[in-house]
Amino acid sequence: MTDTRRRVKVYTLNEDRQWDDRGTGHVSSGYVERLKGTSLLVRAESDGSLLLESKINPNTAYQKQQDTLIVWSEAENYDLALSFQEKAGCDEIWEKICQVQGKDPSVDITQDVVDESEEERFDDMSSPGLELPPCELNRLEDLAELVASSLPSPLRREKLALAVENEGYIRKLLELFRVCEDLENREGLHHLYEIIKGIFLLNRTALFEVMFSEECIMDIIGCLEFDPALPQPRRHREFLTKTARFKEVIPILDPELRQKIHQTYRVQYIQDMVLPTPSVFEENMLSTLHSFIFFNKVEIVGMLQDDEKFLTDLFAQLTDEATDDDKRHELVNFLKEFCAFSQTLQPQNRDAFFKTLSNMGILPALEVILGMDDVQVRGAATDIFSYLVEYNPSMVREFVMQESQQNDDDILLINLIIEHMICDTDPELGGAVQLMGLLRTLVDPENMLATANKTEKTEFLSFFYKHCMHVLSAPLLANTTEEKPSKDDFQTSQLLALILELLTFCVEHHTYHIKNYIINKDILRRVLVLTASQHAFLALCALRFMRRIIGLKDEFYNRYIMRNFLFEPVIKAFLNNGSRYNLMNSAIIEMFEYVRVEDVKSLTAHIVENYWKALEDVDYVQTFKGLKLRYEQQRERQDNPKLDSMRSILRNHRFRRDARTLEDEEEMWFNTDEDDLEDGEAVVPPSDKMKSEEDLMEPISKFMERKKLKDTDDKEVLGKSSLSGRQNPSFKLSFSGSTKTSLSSPPSSASLNPGSPGSPGSPGSGARSSPSTTTVTTKGGLVGLVDYPDDDDEEEEEEEEEEDGESKEDPLPPSKKSKLSS
């Protein structure tokens, strides 16, 4: 059986002074060779991994808080805490720490955090403790001065805390407070304010436990009412006892839980309202107060979560039709505050919390509440729904898909949310903005799960577009039946802008679902009606929607735009805007500029053919003239396809051939049968593929010699050839393996002349080579040599002269020429 005494949670303090849960495990202590000392070890209860390995240093200050917490700092700005499940386990580990440090286990702090100065060391040796003046009215001023003088020094602060704790001084001070208040002794009350404020800054848990106990906390708050800086005392106690009411909507039977709730509320009130805002130097002095509230909240959520009867009663009354409106209002507010408390939990604990609420039926309960007429109740329910969506959107999606099989579309949870968004009565649409954010989270494919059995994205989006999209787009369709928006007031325009924002998000992140919906329902034409709105923000939303569609470069969308002439309202808006240089003008020009830069051919032709006359006079930007130029280039290519192919060849052949193509041709050559080779031809073995660079250069030099001879022969047949290699601007030479067909074909008289129109290697043979390149092949190594079309003519002439000179020295036999032509 697992030892629950040693079960702990490990916490670290983050930059925001909040505790982060690092996991749950079991703590032990023992000698660690690597750290050269006794250490605290925490292993995770889930997988046994090491959560914490911390050496117990002799000089580290360890604090014991609330009987089940041990807190210490390992480095600057790195605080750690162990929260024990049982007090016995905490005591056991505390004794081990005190044993290593040579301290008495009865203390709550082993030593001071900061090294004291030499003077303080001397004071420490000469005066082992701090003596407090007697707790009497006439000595309050001396005590206030002592507290104020002790705060700057860590050592004196520690001594003061020990003295106050050991002598039970706080209760004596509170007795004096009651006397001073009865006597209306304002001077004594001012001294007590300074003393109690100083005790808060001692930052000691043991003192907080006394101060926040049931019998002391209201008097502590009373002391803090008499700030000397204020002409009149504050009335905090009156607010807490008369104005602030504890509403027990469901009876809490556990007295410990009830007391913990009261205590947490009052301590939170002290921190937020009573204590003055701490200065930069005092901020870290209240870290223990933050921790006290944090751990209290964690305990409250845990105790409520474990009380199944309490949660069962809560949800039963929430969904019961007999529950009156006031009671339901209180129940919803309690649940909202309960969910807000859960935000202090760490991810693992929050996970368990929301699973418990889900099992209790929180989503069906919210559906009932959202259907009610009370605006306040609906607002609280919306806040609770937002906690659920932010925590686990998949859980919400699964619920709404299941309920769609049983309920009508009108009462589906998501449709209720959409209706509340549409019907928001706030002039600024604050609630609608919040609900639109939740809808966006729900339809975002980025947080949808994909498993082996099902894809959440496919299932949920199919459901959403079938059951919910018509509800979302209803206000848009109702308001755009004419050429202008039928209602163009500010609130309606804001709502339509929110809907357009969500639809634009869908265009970006959903694929065929939104495409089918837009094309089938003619949504874009309706949206573009809004470009005539008097509200510029709405017209810009409509333009942004169309710009996202064009940005996809999807031909389905493009054909839809052209078929319905949907650029017409955009151009109308552009012309109506006139010469004003504003956001509308820039947005429309950017849309056309995108079409020009991205060369969207279909839209370019459509715009120029249908709207050029309206746009030709716009000359302060070159966008429209650039579109016209693009269009004319397209027409030119269509009328002269050879020119287009030549351009593509020039574009594509300015780089070496792809290595994979060479490998394919090489493989084809090696697969050629020896019987198919002509007599006298050498067979290159497969191992030649692994030749070194020196071996590879040898066939290149041989080829250059053959090329020179071939160029000499080309000059002789120049009149016979319609297109020679020198005339071709993209002349290309390459070594490659020739095909089996060309190798096996018998040599003919025509093949003796490499430049004749009938030879397989000549440009006149369309089946063998493209009209724009001349390729000479051999079975040697595979190297591509490219003569770029933009080389200077002078270089070409120099090469010809060199080749002519060298070809005379080393002529090639005719048999080799025939081999080249193949």
From TrEMBL:
Biased composition (Acidic residues): 671-681, 788-807
One annotated GO molecular function: protein phosphatase activator activity
Residue ranges with Low complexity bias: 730-756, 765-786
UniProt feature, compositional bias: Basic and acidic residues: 703-718
A matching Pfam family: EVH1_PP4R3
One annotated GO biological process: DNA damage response
Domain PP4R3 EVH1-like: from-to ranges: 5-101
Domain of life: Eukaryota
GO cellular component terms listed in the entry, alphabetical order: nucleoplasm; protein phosphatase 4 complex
Entry function: Regulatory subunit of serine/threonine-protein phosphatase 4.
Protein name: Serine/threonine-protein phosphatase 4 regulatory subunit 3
Organism: Perca flavescens (American yellow perch)
